[in-house]
Design goal:
6-stranded parallel β-sheet; alpha/beta; 5-stranded mixed β-sheet; Rossmann fold; 11 strands; 2 domains; 40% helix
Length: 314
């Protein structure tokens, strides 16, 4: 049964605090709406986990948020969007809209590129999924996607300290092959990356357009709420609250930098922890090898998941 209570909040989840860059744009663009944000900091990072594990996490987090009440769900994690969005939409068909970050960014990149060469900076899980390649092919059939994967950059940013030589060195290494490929537009395929946008712009050059998901997602949320007749009174001032699977005080400390708005109380929620980490490519990576990857043109693997990997939210 479709949810028709416009007083319910918009629910957002992410692997950690990176999705707060998306929430920031939503709070600024839709100040009359209520939002609830769930950060899965206990299981961060998502970027090199398997699609099956990501699907299980996404279903569990969606279930937690829906149990508490929500009228729309935003998957603000690129890795989770790539692995789980089709399954979540099928699970929740007819109940509430589900929005991911991949399609809106690809649409912006297709509109921005002048030479048809688009770069992607993302986690290994996101790149391996082929989700951006499929989305860009739909939006710009003649376009080329040059993807560079990093398992380190999101973790460096989430640490919440100052931008230091480690971040600059990591960014320089990731952007070098994109400059060599002649891209004129780069998609930030991880919600952590906007926090180091100035560093990325310097490394890419001022002629390269950087595309991120924040405003595009806020616009999509507004459009979906209007279409479903779920908007609240524009004269009111909405509220926002936070849930975290890890340590609440650490979420509040680091998250304030990402949100750029006050974070007061953070409620802890428990989730099932995996017995072992299933990482992309662990079976073949030599000991000591870096998980940052050179740009590559991938095939288009289908994203599948074990339907029994987590409890159903349907």
């Amino acid at each position: 049964m479709a949810i028709r209570d416009r007083k319910l909040p918009v629910a957002v989840f992410d692997s950690g605090v990176g999705g707060l860059t998306v929430l920031h744009e939503c709070l600024v663009s839709l100040p009359h709406e209520d939002f609830v944000y769930l950060g899965d900091t206990a299981r961060f990072p998502y970027g090199d986990r398997s699609p099956e594990e990501l699907l299980a996490f996404a279903r569990e987090l969606a279930g937690i948020l829906l149990d508490r009440g929500a009228k729309l769900l935003v998957v603000a994690c690129n890795s989770a969007t790539a692995a789980a969005l089709p399954a979540l939409r099928e699970d929740l068909r007819g109940r509430l809209p589900v929005i991911g970050v991949v399609r809106p960014e690809s649409r912006l990149a297709a509109a921005a590129t002048r030479n048809g060469r688009v770069g992607l900076l993302a986690t290994p899980a996101t790149v391996a999924s082929g989700a951006y390649e499929r989305a860009l092919a739909d939006e710009a059939p003649a376009g080329e996607l040059h993807a560079v994967a990093s398992a380190e950059l999101a973790t460096l940013i989430q640490e919440g300290g100052e931008v230091d030589h480690r971040v600059v060195s990591c960014v320089d290494g990731l952007c070098r092959p994109l400059r060599a490929a002649g891209v004129d537009t780069v998609i930030l395929g991880c919600t952590h990356y906007p926090l180091v946008r100035p560093v990325l712009q310097r490394a890419l050059g001022r002629g390269v357009v950087i595309v991120s998901s924040g405003q595009a997602i806020a616009d999509e949320v507004e459009a979906q709420l209007r279409q479903a007749d779920l908007e609240t009174d524009h004269r009111r001032r909405g509220e926002y609250r936070f849930l975290a699977t890890g340590e609440p005080e650490e979420f509040r400390r680091v998250g304030t930098r990402f949100l750029q708005l006050p974070i007061t109380e953070v409620q802890h929620v428990a989730v099932s922890l995996p017995r072992s980490r299933q990482r992309i490519g662990d079976h073949s990576r030599p000991a000591g090898a870096s998980r940052d990857r050179a740009p590559q043109r991938r095939g288009r693997p289908s994203v599948t998941g074990d339907p029994n990997a987590a409890r159903s939210i349907a």
